[in-house]
């Protein structure tokens, strides 16, 4: 086993036991650390444990020059700070070199959101007179109703929804949250479960809530294609991804008076600062509306 692989394995154990990291965080941190370790070895001929502030700063510049986004570099920074903190806990290091490295600040790109009318237009596109359209309608309505991630959507099992109460239970690693659904989403889901899914599933005991036409669990790529198909059909010029509906869910709740902490809980954000980006989205939207609509603007 190489030194890098050994470091990755020890760090993985630390994230699981000490940080109770979700599966998404775990995979992201390990990928970031592996990429940094490979870069450090190839350019500086150093093992991970010997990385210094200058090495880390040079790596951030390399990521920027490679076209990586601000959020990617920030996540990498969080990974390295966490990794070196782990080494300090293990008494293998005295100081955290990543803690003192600053990044060039760039304006954070605001998430793309749809207007209420664009969401309505988009959700009207599935043809609910055929099985595929009924399934697609249920998926899209559920996504906008709850704001869950696409990975969480396709990971839902039959036991995770309760139509009589109108909620969905969402798992993200060790954490679980319960999110309500509006009546239209509940109806779309009931139509799919009662009229379509029984004929779609390949195996009677298939646990997946949403399945493809072959009867097995819907894939991330498969759902991505569904979203792009309906964007084209709706004629909406904005770029729509599965995450666009998540962003729109949060922004629309906020503009209609929902509490930011409640939105954070429904989105599953660990830090409120992540959710606060939607405050800026709403402010920008209202400013744009004011400039267009006010007679003296």
Characterization of the model:
- The protein is about 60% helix and about 5% strand.
- By secondary structure, the chain is mainly α.
- The longest helix is centred in the N-terminal third of the chain and has 22 residues, at about 25-45.
- A three-stranded antiparallel sheet has the order 1-2-3, with no helix packed on it.
- It has helices spanning about 5-15, 25-45, 55-65, 70-90, 115-125, 130-145, 150-155, 185-195, 195-200, 220-235, 240-255, 260-265, 270-275, 275-295, and strands at about 160, 165-170, 175-180.
- The chain folds into two domains: about 5-100, Tyrosine recombinase, N-terminal domain (DNA polymerase, domain 1, Orthogonal Bundle); about 115-295, Orthogonal Bundle (hpI Integrase, Chain A), CATH 1.10.443.10.
- The chain is built from 14 helices and three strands.
CATH topology of the largest domain: hpI Integrase, Chain A
The CATH class designation of the largest domain is Mainly Alpha
What number is the mean pLDDT? 88
The CATH architecture of the largest domain is Orthogonal Bundle
């Amino acid at each position: 086993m190489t030194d890098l692989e050994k470091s990755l394995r020890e760090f993985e154990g630390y994230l699981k036991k000490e940080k109770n990291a979700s599966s998404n965080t775990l995979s992201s941190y390990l990928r970031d650390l592996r990429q940094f370790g490979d870069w450090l070895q190839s350019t500086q001929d150093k093992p991970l444990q010997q990385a210094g502030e200058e090495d880390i700063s040079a790596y951030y510049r390399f990521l920027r020059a490679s076209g990586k986004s601000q959020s990617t570099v920030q996540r990498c920074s969080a990974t390295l700070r966490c990794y070196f903190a782990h080494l300090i806990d293990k008494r293998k290091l005295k100081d955290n070199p990543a803690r003192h490295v600053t990044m060039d600040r760039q304006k954070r790109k605001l998430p793309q959101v749809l207007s209420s009318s664009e969401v309505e237009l988009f959700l009207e596109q599935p043809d609910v007179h055929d099985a595929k359209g009924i399934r697609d309608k249920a998926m899209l309505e559920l996504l906008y109703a709850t704001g869950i991630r696409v990975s969480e959507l396709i990971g839902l099992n039959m036991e995770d929804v309760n139509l009589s109460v109108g909620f969905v239970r969402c798992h993200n690693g060790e954490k679980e949250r319960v999110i309500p659904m509006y009546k239209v989403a509940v109806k779309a889901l009931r139509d799919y479960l009662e009229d379509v899914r029984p004929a779609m599933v390949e195996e009677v005991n298939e646990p997946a809530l949403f399945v493809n036409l072959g009867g097995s669990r819907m894939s991330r790529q498969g759902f991505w294609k569904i979203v792009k198909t309906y964007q084209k059909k709706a004629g909406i010029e904005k770029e729509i991804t599965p995450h666009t509906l998540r962003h729109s869910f949060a922004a629309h709740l906020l503009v209609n008076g929902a509490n930011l902490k409640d939105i954070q809980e429904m989105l599953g954000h660990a830090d409120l600062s992540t959710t606060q980006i939607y405050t800026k989205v709403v402010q920008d939207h209202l400013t744009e509306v004011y400039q267009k609509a006010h007679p003296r603007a």
